[in-house]
Amino acid sequence: MIVVHHLNNSRSQRVLWLLEELGLEYEIVRYQRDPKTMLAPPELKKIHPLGKSPVISDNGIVVAESGAIAEYLIDTYGNGRLIPPAGTEERRRWTYFLHYAEGSAMAPLLMKLIFDRVETSPAPFFVKPIARGIAQKVKGSYILPQIATHLDYLEAELGKAPWFAGNDFTAADIQMSFPLEAASARGGLDGSRPKLTAFLKNIHSRPAFQRALERGGPYELLK
């Protein structure tokens, strides 16, 4: 039996969605973030040494990292579903976007989250203006332009086909959902990029996505 070690408001929501799209049975073991630090609880280290989510276990096999989990599930249980045929341009794009989501797209969004917290966190009165000024400078000169560059790039890519790998919905679209959800929640993605906003609307309407939300629980990035 596949077990998803599911951390609230995390990338593991994508794993639940993929499992629902594949129609696989699975169990969920739930973990809650520390409300102050927002870090995963130490219990996750019993499953994987890094103590992070997502991670799954499947008959003694432990797989971490969302891209690796997606590849494992597709290779093991997909039977050709949610992946284009080998040797095609669609397959090349599938592989690229499966890894681009975490390898490139999430980096500036994570940096923005960190510097937003630097800007707003409590601090001594004589330190706070300095911290705020540094955070605003880094965001304005580097982070926000980087996010805009990625969003412009992705908007153009969805101008070529309705989904990231081509004309068919695949696991690459599931993987790409998290950075786009994060960009919509805190990274400036809005109606000025209609193809990306349409992508989010389309994935939210998928029955498997909705089933994953029902099983996974509240997902703050969607709010």
TrEMBL record:
- What are the residue boundaries of the GST C-terminal domain, all occurrences included? 87-223
Which intervals hold domain GST N-terminal? 1-81
**Highest taxon, organism lineage:** Bacteria
Q: Name one Pfam family in it.
A: GST_N
Q: Which family does it belong to?
A: Belongs to the GST superfamily.
Read off the PANTHER family from this record: GLUTATHIONE S-TRANSFERASE 1 (PTHR44051:SF9), GLUTATHIONE S-TRANSFERASE-RELATED (PTHR44051)
Q: What is this protein called?
A: Glutathione S-transferase
